[in-house]
Design brief:
single chain, 278 residues, alpha+beta, Glutaredoxin, 2 domains, two-stranded antiparallel sheet, 8 helices, 13 strands
Length: 278
């Protein structure tokens, strides 16, 4: 009888333990990359420039330190990401090499790790690898690789609409990828999502983000013909504006030809006066 009692008691305790475990698992939400990972546009909103991070040299810096009358390209990733981040960083390096603007001269680049466990040493290794691919002198002064605490990372991510989740089972982050262009005043200007942006897209975005303080007259002319589409994060050709420019150019050309013909007509010497003298 006593043996049966202990068996029943052990079984009851085991059932209660299993039920408690199942309840704890049910109460702890599982990250859902489909619902919890997103990149929402916050155009014209301000990013918190008072945030403090650590750069690749181990120095404490404020985000506002990188806003020196130049637009800023912001990229959130993490340096030991096994897949997506390496592709994203390799892609931006390739596009920046195609861009005629130089890092540190016309614009700054800030890359921030979303993993608070990563260290400045890890950031420094990633910076060295990417700069060796970029291959332009002086870029080390304009491309910054930051790490930080979770609260500051989350605050910056939230300000740009960057939603990501950590998967403890895989010890990895699920996150979107893309670039954010920010004005020298700290306002969000443009988004470029994924890998499908070009050097021309980025150049036009930087010219706009700088309030046309950088770039050439040709860039300004391109901005009349191309318009940023927030739905796609790309610049698209405005046929209507192109036709208007062609029409204006045609009118100016014809006007110039008419003026030239009139000038030549007036410049032509008149007929000689051969009237005999009296």
């Amino acid at each position: 009888m006593r043996s049966s009692y202990w068996k029943i008691l052990r079984s009851t305790i085991l059932i209660l333990v299993l039920l408690s475990f199942a309840r704890a698992v049910a109460q702890e939400p599982t990250p859902d990359p489909v619902k919890d990972v997103a990149f929402d546009q916050r155009l014209n909103e301000a990013v918190p420039l008072d945030l403090t991070f650590t750069d690749e040299n181990g120095t404490s810096v404020r985000l506002e330190d990188y806003f020196n009358n130049r637009p800023v390209i912001l990229l959130l990733a993490y340096y030991e990401c096994p897949m997506l981040c390496d592709l994203a960083l390799a892609n931006i390096t390739r596009v920046l090499r195609e861009l005629r603007f130089n890092i540190g001269e016309q614009y700054e680049v800030v890359t921030l790790s979303i993993d608070p466990r990563e260290t400045p040493e890890i950031a420094a290794r990633k910076k060295a690898a990417l700069l060796s691919e970029y291959q332009r002198p002086g870029a080390e002064q304009g491309w910054h690789f930051l790490t930080g605490r979770q609260a500051e990372i989350d605050r910056l991510a939230e300000s740009i609409g960057f939603s990501y989740v950590y998967d403890p089972a895989l010890d990895e982050y699920s996150h979107p990828t893309g670039l954010v262009l920010i004005t020298p005043q700290g306002k969000i200007s443009r988004y470029f999502f994924g890998f499908n942006y070009t050097a021309q897209d980025l150049r036009l975005g930087l010219v706009e983000a700088s309030q046309e303080r950088i770039g050439s007259l040709i860039d300004r002319a391109f901005l009349l013909c191309y318009s940023y589409n927030p739905a796609t994060g790309k610049y698209t050709l405005l046929i209507q504006n192109v036709l208007r420019l062609v029409a204006v150019g045609t009118v100016l050309l014809l006007s110039g030809l008419i003026l030239l013909m009139l000038w030549r007509e007036r410049s032509r010497p008149g007929p000689l006066d051969i009237t005999p003298g009296v």
